[in-house]
Design goal:
The chain is α/β, with parallel strands linked by helices and about 400 residues long. It contains 14 helices and 13 strands. The strands form 2 sheets. Strands 1, 2, 3, 4, 5, 6, 7, 8 and 9 form a 9-stranded mixed beta sheet that branches. Strands 10-11-12-13 form a 4-stranded mixed beta sheet, with helices on both faces. α9 packs across α10 and α11 packs across α12. The longest helix has 29 residues. It is globular, with a radius of gyration of 27 Å.
Length: about 400
């Protein structure tokens, strides 16, 4: 009995100590960091894949070889192309570390259904990559432009996206799950960050680009791409992209507020926390959308010369800050209403949560309802601090100049 029990526990222990049966050594695989999809010249799609040279990312430094390699192929299926890439690459490609999916503007206008299902269905590709739409450049250019402090173009863009969202709020940070959820929703249409290249793209693909003080080309975020179902409809500006984020999850941003209508001087306000509230109600046959923004901020700098030791100065700044937020958000929402007639903000989903019966009545025609909606925006802001000092030296300078006159 004891011997049988010993054998049983021995077998269980051996099973628990076994390694991964499907493990692969790093020197047997290649890691994909970026994908770019365009219209093919001879086939339906052109897929470009950026693969990193792992030895060039070692802590003890590389050997001077190319840190990443981009290879492109054409075909009628992105799934087949992804599996066929060893036509050019030596090792098996691992897609689980993909950081960006760059989609060409021309292809996005014809629709994304032809390949999005593959990305959502695949068990090898995680859904935490950033979806980006090019504007005025080819998608493959984005994963080829070199940069001084990041060896992989795709990883540079991924890090840039994270930082830009956190520091200014210019990137909506759309992941595959976010895009698909909006795609199948009747109360919200998808969006994605738009991306472009400043400079000459063909010069940015050289090794010399990351050694120049003044870069020949650099990848930049430049706004928001709007979709109706799976087709690209157009673009909004970078400021509109931030206004979109006000209604989502804006972490931090900086606003420049005029001192007065007559002066060409400004105060710099840093938003450190914001919280949106959206209410959708019907007033007769017209939807009434109310957006309320509560925000806390710090004064980062001023050109105004007003005395910061007075409470009225802060009250005036808070008033002007609230007016600025209200007007910019209102302008963005009404622009989308008038130019595109699609709800990218999720007001339809808000109506579904707040008045489900009314939502079911207008669900199929919600875009038309949104287009005629009355928009109200209210901002309630609080300036908490003014940096490490109260009054600015500009106050004393202003007094001195007045005395001299």
């Amino acid at each position: 009995m004891k011997k049988s029990l010993f054998v049983f526990f021995f077998i269980i222990t051996i099973c628990l100590l076994t390694g991964c049966w499907d493990s692969q050594e790093l020197n047997e695989v290649s890691i994909v960091t970026g994908l770019a999809i365009e219209k093919g010249e001879d086939k339906k799609f052109r897929l470009s894949v950026e693969v990193i040279n792992a030895s060039e990312f070692a802590h003890n430094g590389g050997t001077g070889d190319a840190p990443s390699i981009v290879f492109s192929m054409e075909g009628d299926s992105v799934s087949e192309l992804a599996d066929k890439m060893n036509k050019g690459f030596i090792r098996k490609l691992i897609y689980s570390h993909t950081r960006v999916l760059v989609i060409d503007e021309e292809l996005a206008r014809t629709g994304l259904v032809g390949f999005l299902d593959f990305f959502e269905r695949s068990g090898e590709i995680r859904n935490d990559f950033n979806i980006l739409i090019t504007r005025g450049v080819k998608a493959s250019d984005i994963i080829k432009i070199t940069y001084p402090t990041q060896k992989s173009p795709s990883m540079k863009v991924s890090s840039q996206s994270e930082t830009f969202m956190r520091e200014w709020g210019g990137d909506p940070h759309i992941r595959l799950t976010d895009f698909v959820e909006a795609l199948v929703s009747n109360g919200r249409h998808p969006v994605a960050a738009s991306i472009s290249v400043e400079g000459e793209p063909h010069k940015g693909k050289t090794v010399d680009n990351n050694k120049n003080l003044d870069l020949d080309a650099i990848v930049v975020f430049d706004g928001l791409a709007l979709f109706k179902n799976d087709k690209l409809q157009g673009f909004l500006t970078l400021e509109d992209s931030r206004n979109y984020m006000w209604m989502k999850d804006l972490e931090n941003t900086t606003l420049t507020i005029p001192c007065s209508e007559k002066e060409d001087n400004y105060s710099d306000i840093r938003i450190i926390h914001s919280k949106p509230e959206k209410t959708v109600r019907y007033k007769g046959d017209i939807p009434e959308i109310t957006i309320t923004i509560k925000a806390e901020a710090n004064l980062q700098g001023t050109q105004c010369g007003e005395e910061l030791s007075k409470i009225d100065t802060y009250k005036n700044l808070e008033k002007e800050l609230s007016k600025n937020i209200e007007s910019t958000i209102f302008n963005t929402v009404t622009k989308v209403q008038e130019e595109y007639g699609i709800d990218i903000f999720g007001f339809g989903e808000d109506l579904r949560r707040q008045d489900y019966q009314k939502y079911k009545q207008v669900e199929k025609e919600w875009d038309k309802e949104f287009s005629k909606a009355e928009i109200n925006v209210a901002a309630d802001t609080f300036i908490r601090r003014s940096g490490i000092r109260s009054d600015s030296f500009l106050t004393e300078l202003k007094k001195k100049m007045e005395e001299e006159e």
